[in-house]
Design brief:
It contains 14 helices and 20 strands. It has a seven-stranded antiparallel β-sheet with strand order 17-14-16-15-19-20-18. The protein is globular and about 70 Å long. α11 packs antiparallel against α12. The N and C termini lie far apart (55 Å). The chain is α+β, with helices and mostly antiparallel strands and 479 residues long.
Length: 479
């Protein structure tokens, strides 16, 4: 076997013995992959095509005992380690350069208990896996808007989507979890069992261990809901965005309407003349009483004069996957994000001006309207602190060629800077890029010191640091 050199937690380069690698491989039910294996290139790839990292080992896990073996190996060798669920995070934190990847992507089971209204979800499951199983019973839990996103990373970072206004964050619906901490020990946590660690998991990311199982609360949803798109020409942008903003102040919680500024894709319900032109798209979903859905959504059609619309009843799981073609893996992506309590006219004007300078056909600015059930939770009740964010903006730069890297990133950064005066100063950790580690403390706000205390208890050496890191807090000094 070729000598493998890995990066330690101290930043040194150290060789791994063949015996150590063979022992790890023998201890796993899953596959251990090294750089000489044929499938190494595919197994180190993630959703964001800009991420090109080379781990030394990829430990494919089939169950909790595999996770224990991988964690013990990383701790014993003081090896940089990352956790891969769906591999969808923009920062590419699923892959540890020169380290060990604990790969959970094969663990995708979902077990629904319709009588209890709960689902037990494995850490490699994708949103589409959960939706498919829960919708068989007309149930759902709040998730994101792209069916190929991993549930684990979404939930641990908070998680919002179409159901958030009515049912809260993904993390708000987490009832319990099983995880392996840095010492290799297994834990079952809930509001009754190690409540402080459970608190930290609901928004604190992958800082506290490797979650091997999630239990979520489910809600009656669908199977059919009212959803779709309303598209306006860009010359109506100011008018329709201000109308949308005013409408969101009074919108029923069953209705979520998000605004997207981008070039029009060649959708069949749009006139061909508008394809490739800048537009304002309103994506909406109504998950309440079907008899009121069309009436509630009609306001969106009255914001201006639409260029086209596609609204109607459809399966919930289908709309959950509707944006997958625009978010396929492999493209180069860079994001910048802000939280807003409100969107004044000047903030909207800045967003419109930014959209006038879109650097490419796949770039967009989206504005998600939240509030509702999410905002009624105390900011200290879970690690997720951004309860005052009634709107979240994601400046989504997306392109195909490396030659466009600087231009697209510069655009996203400029938009971020121009909108900063109107934002809360907080942020959504699931949208933070690898160069935004300095925003982690502000994203957690009043909860950051408490998260550091939990980190100090369960991971004092910061083994789990290949993430949007919460470093262990300093030990308290006795009076």
């Amino acid at each position: 076997m070729t000598t493998l050199t890995y990066r330690t937690l101290d930043g040194d380069q150290t060789a791994l013995s063949a015996e150590a690698v063979d022992a790890l491989a023998a201890s796993l039910h899953g596959q251990l992959t090294t750089p000489t294996d044929d499938d190494y290139a595919s197994r180190r790839g993630v959703w964001n095509g800009m991420v090109d990292r080379h781990p030394v080992l990829i430990a494919g896990c089939q169950g909790t005992q595999d996770i224990v073996q991988a964690v013990d190996f990383a701790r014993t060798h003081r090896m940089c380690v990352s956790i891969r669920g769906g591999g969808h995070h923009i920062a590419g934190n699923a892959i540890a350069e020169g380290g060990l990847v604990i790969d959970l992507s094969a663990m995708r089971s979902v077990h629904v208990d319709p009588r209890q209204g709960t689902a037990r979800v494995a850490p490699g499951a994708l949103l589409g896996d959960v939706d498919r199983e829960t919708q068989a019973f007309g149930l759902a839990t709040p998730l994101g808007i792209n069916s190929t996103t991993g549930v684990a990373g979404l939930a641990l970072g908070g998680g919002f989507g179409w159901l958030t206004r009515q049912h809260g964050l993904t993390a708000d619906n987490l009832l319990s979890a099983e995880l392996v901490t840095a010492d290799g020990q297994r834990h079952h946590v809930s509001a009754e069992e190690d409540a402080e660690l459970f608190w930290a998991l609901r928004g604190g990311g992958g800082n506290f261990g490797v979650v091997s199982s999630f239990e979520f609360r489910l809600h009656p949803v669908g199977p059919e809901i009212y959803a779709g798109l309303v598209v306006y020409p860009f010359d109506q942008a100011r008018r329709v965005l201000e109308a949308w903003r005013d409408f969101t102040h009074e919108a029923p919680e069953a209705l979520s309407v998000w605004a997207i500024l981008r070039e029009a894709p060649p959708l069949p319900f749009l006139p061909e003349a508008i394809h490739g032109e800048r537009v304002v798209v309103f994506a909406l979903m109504h998950v309440g009483d079907p008899t009121s859905a069309e009436r509630d959504a009609a306001a969106v059609l009255a914001f201006g004069e639409p260029a086209g619309q596609m609204l109607g009843f459809q399966p919930y799981a289908d709309f959950q996957a509707a944006f997958d073609p625009l978010l396929a893996p492999g493209a180069r992506n860079y994001w910048k994000s802000h939280d807003f309590r409100d969107l004044g006219d000047e903030a909207l004007a800045q967003a419109i001006a930014a959209a006038e300078a879109l650097p490419g056909p796949e770039c967009e600015i989206f504005l998600a309207h939240l509030g509702g059930a999410m905002s009624r939770v105390d900011p200290t009740a879970t690690a997720y602190a951004g309860r005052d964010a009634h709107y979240v903006m994601n400046v989504h730069a997306r392109w195909q060629e490396a030659a466009e890297d600087d231009r697209c990133r510069d655009w996203a950064r400029e938009v971020f800077q121009k909108l900063a005066p109107f934002a809360t100063g907080g942020g959504y950790v699931n949208f933070l890029t690898e160069d935004e580690g300095d925003r982690v403390a502000s994203a957690y706000g009043v909860n950051f010191a408490r998260l550091q205390a939990v980190k100090r208890r369960v991971d004092p050496d910061n083994l789990f640091r290949v993430n949007l890191n919460i470093p262990p807090g300093a030990a308290e000094v006795a009076a």
